[in-house]
Amino acid sequence: MTGERDELQRRLCERESHDMKTIKQHAVNVTLDPDSAHPYLILSADGKEVKLGDKRQNVPDTLKRFNQTISVLGKEGFSSGKFYYEVQVKGKTKWDIGVAKESINRKGEITLGPKYGYWAVWLRNSTYAALASPSVLLSLKGKPQRVGVFVDYDAGLVSFYDADCWHHIYSFTHVFFTEKIYPYFSPCLNDGGRNSAPLIISPVYICPIK
């Protein structure tokens, strides 16, 4: 199995563009923040996976915690520079992935969009959209199994990629960040069991730049 995985990574590496290799040099170690997680969300012990549970967890309702929207933030925030991470979305019919500013409202129903401090894309059944103003329907070449998120804080750029075939999904540009931003995730409702797979923050395989 290890040999097959290495061979797959070698073939993917050959297909990877120079730009993507450069972006991946900014890979960061993202973990989920349990203090922000909606009470029904279950996080893995290593903070790399999140899924919706069947019952409310016994957690305090602090200002940091989402109390109605099925969401969670990354533990570490960023206020400068560039960073990149990948999220496995395999087996899911619905998800939200992006970044959010620190001062977002985490209580009650939440609207995703730059106006509200979120820069995100989502999947709803077979429909992908960038949650801009207004939302932009996305026509993708395939169904991503892993989504890469790249942020250049100082340049005001948030870009999304299909991390397996290196296709660009969407970019928010000319963003004027004024505060710390955090990775944002929502595994969404379970959709009668069809969407019960977790979101998984994946290791980033970095190919050598030639």
Automatic annotation (TrEMBL):
It comes from Coilia grayii (Gray's grenadier anchovy). It comes from the Eukaryota. This is B30.2/SPRY domain-containing protein. CDD domains: SPRY_PRY_C-I_1. Pfam families: PRY, SPRY. InterPro entries: B30.2/SPRY, B30.2/SPRY_sf, Butyrophylin_SPRY, ConA-like_dom_sf, PRY, SPRY_dom, TRIM/RBCC. Signal peptide: none annotated. PANTHER family: E3 UBIQUITIN-PROTEIN LIGASE TRIM. Residues 10-204 form the B30.2/SPRY domain.
